[in-house]
Amino acid sequence: MTTPLIKLSPSMMCADYLNLREELDVLKSEKVDMLHIDIMDGNYVPNFTLGPDLAYIMNGHTNIPLDFHLMIENVDSNYGLFTKVKGSTVTFHPETSKHPVRTLSAIQSMGCKAGLAIDPGMSIETVKHLLPLADMICVMTVNPGFAGQKLLPFCIDKIKELSDLRNSNDCDFEIEVDGNVSWENIPIMLNAGADILVLGTSSVFTKNEPRKESYRKLKKNLADSKQ
């Protein structure tokens, strides 16, 4: 489906829930790498979205790994709810944990990958010491909480900064980008060093064309970005 170095993580909060089985069947046929599951509690961000039970149902239907993004308070008491499927990625915002080093290690000990999410208001410098401990760093290029927002251009610099730090410190974390991953912005994000694209309403989850057509367009976009 994609180039070997680029992974796709469609944001399931953008799916058509009246036709969820059909949505999942398309994602399975397109061999996407992960299902991005936004977990919001109405406190860390002013919105409520998906829950673990629905995520596990989607995984059961597709066998596609889960990519949990925990936008919640009190993450230390709740991350265990999202480690049921081994091989899932569980990402949290480090400022929501009293002991982020312990939380990263605990998630990994449960057979999952552990990620850190960097929102627009947080610099890479504030989490630099945690980077070698994480399997993935998610760069938010919009404010967390809602789909359909405009890209904050300065966040692209964070992707490049992370890529440079990874190369200079011999780290192996993956870089995920989440927020306005549009046809226009995908080449810019990949050029900055992104490895994983969280796909939403600005690309494949559109009402303007069939999903299969959106993924055909995405494959061409990725191929053009390599040139």
If you had to describe this structure to a student in words, what would you say it looks like?
The protein is an alpha/beta fold and 227 residues long. It has a single domain (7-226), classed as TIM Barrel, CATH 3.20.20. The protein is built from 6 helices and 8 strands, in the order E-H-E-H-E-E-H-E-E-H-E-H-E-H. The chain has helices spanning 20-29, 52-62, 100-109, 154-168, 186-192, 211-226; strands spanning 7-10, 35-40, 66-71, 89-92, 113-118, 136-140, 174-178, 196-199. The chain has an 8-stranded parallel β-sheet with strand order 1-8-7-6-5-4-3-2. The longest helix has 16 residues, at 211-226. The two termini are 17 Å apart. The mean pLDDT is 93.
What is the number of beta strands?
A: 8
Number of helices: 6
CATH top level is: Alpha Beta
% residues in beta strands = 15-25%
| End-to-end distance | 17 Å
Taking strands numbered 1, 2, ... along the chain, how are they ordered across the largest sheet?
Answer: 1-8-7-6-5-4-3-2
The helix/strand class is: alpha/beta
Approximately how much helix is present in the residues? 25-40%
Specify the overall morphology.
Answer: globular
What's the overall average pLDDT, rounded? 93
What's the domain count?
Answer: 1
- Helices and strands, in order, run as EHEHEEHEEHEHEH
Report the biggest beta sheet as strand number plus sense, adding barrel if it closes: 8 strands, parallel
Query: How large is the radius of gyration?
Result: 16 Å
Q: What's the CATH superfamily, by name?
A: Aldolase class I
Quote the CATH topology: TIM Barrel
Low-pLDDT runs: none
**So, CATH architecture?**
Alpha-Beta Barrel
